[in-house]
Structures are given as structure tokens and as C-alpha cells.
Amino acid sequence: MATPAHSARAHSFNRAAAQYAAARPAYPPALFDTLEELTGRPLTGARVGDIGAGTGIATALLHARGADVIAVEPGAGMAAQFRRALPGTPLIRGTGDALPLAGTSLDLLTYAQSWHWTDPARAVPEALRVLRPGGALALWWNTDAIDVPWITEAAARIRRHFGLDVPTEQRMTGARLHDPTGRLTPVRREIRWSRRVPLDTHLANLGSHSFFLVHDAAHSAAFLTEERERLLTVFPDGVVEEVYDVILLVAPAP
Predict the structure, then answer these.
(1) Residues in a beta bridge with 160
(2) What is the rounded distance in angstroms from the CA atom of residue 41 to the CA atom of residue 115?
(3) pLDDT digit string, tens, across residues 71-109
(4) Terminal CA-to-CA distance of the chain, rounded, Å?
(5) Does the pTM exceed 0.70?
(6) d(CA 3, CA 9)
(7) Neighbouring C-beta atoms of residue 159, cutoff 10 Å
(8) Burial letters for 113-126: b for 16+ Cβ neighbours within 10 Å, e otherwise?
(9) Domains (range + CATH), the chain
(10) How far apart are CA 81 and CA 142, in angstroms?
(11) What's 44's DSSP letter?
């Protein structure tokens, strides 16, 4: 069962949906190539449910690869932003713990940055219910490449300022698939990629993470102001190269 703190973090994105959509990173083409490799089928023509779709970052990329996507999102703010960005894509309000989808209706069920908000004891049986024979559950997270020196240093500053044990919400919860049913055997891949963005976009990306959103606004703003000055010493041209490891888990349905 979710704790009050976990629930507060999960709901915090709704008030920052526009910022999330504008600043969060997308995903590299290699992720979707690897997804096709591990599932053994092309995304083109696949019936996909994108759960915890947020503002539609992953949904749009799945659609661009030819998938027939239906999105599920619990948050009102995120859903409103999704509908502005992807007005022609079906979106249903709901959660992975009680999917508003028919049984054996999907070839692929995806969770981009969102599995850690579910209760696996409920979400795994729901995934197995809606997947067709031969279908698969796929989870992925953009995680900071903490072997990159400037990212390691920035992560340490975040830990000190916010009193965290680990640098990002993905590292906090762990990119993993806990399966209480014992019926899923995930395959794990990591894909490194990077993007170059203006410093303001990088800071907005940081500020859209839940551990910023649930803290006092002045506390978060103070960190971002200091971080701007520190990063200008690393990126004097004001363009930040963010480096990510996408952690992908794919589990075929039994």
C-alpha cells in the first residue's frame, strides 16, 4: 500500500504538467529497436497500452513507430496536457492497479517512468489479464548516467540539499520489476544516450521531479539558483549535455 509521502509524490506532477512536457527528456530510437528485438515483433500494427502515460512523451513515440496506442493516466493535470499534445490519441483515466482495459486485448503493455508508482501485487495480475498470449510487459526509465563526473557532482549536491540517499526518483525506487506472482521473467537492457539542451531546460527538467515538487517552493528554488551558477562553470555556453542510461525491462506473458 502506498504511503502518504509516496502518494504525495505521485500526485505532485499534476501541478507541473506543462513544465514536465516541455523539459523532460524523451527516449532514443535505440530503445524502441531493442523493444522490438526483445518482444520478437515490430511495433507497427501492435496494440499497445501505455500506462501512466503522463503528458504523452512515450505514447507519441510509440505511435510514431506505427503502434496502435491507447493511453491510461490517473492525473487530471497530466491528462489535460496529454490531450492538448495528442488530441487524436485515445486516453482513459485510470491506473495500472486497476486497468480500465479489456482482457487479452493488448500485444504490449508499457510503463515509461511510471511502474514505480504502482502496487505490483495488483499491477502484475492486471498486466497478465490484459495481455494477449505472446504479449509482453515493458518497463523503462531514463536514469542519470552517474559515472559522468558533472552528473555525479550534481547528484551529490541534490542529496545534500534535499536529504536524499540517492540522486533521482528512479534510483530511489529502483528500476526493477517485482513480481509477486512469480510468473514473469524480465530481460534487462541498458541503453546510453544523451541530449544537449539550454541550461534553463535542464533546470526545468530537474524541477519537474517529484522530490523538488513536494518540497517547499523556496527550498527548491534556492537549489536551482545555486545550481545555475555551478553549471555555468561546467557549460559556459549555457548548453548542458544530459547523459542518460535507459533501463529497459521486458517480460513476456506466460
Answers:
(1) none
(2) 23
(3) 999 999 999 999 999 999 999 999 999 999 999 999 999
(4) 26
(5) yes
(6) 10
(7) 13
(8) bbbbbbbbeebbeb
(9) 4-145+169-196+243-252 (3.40.50.150)
(10) 21
(11) T
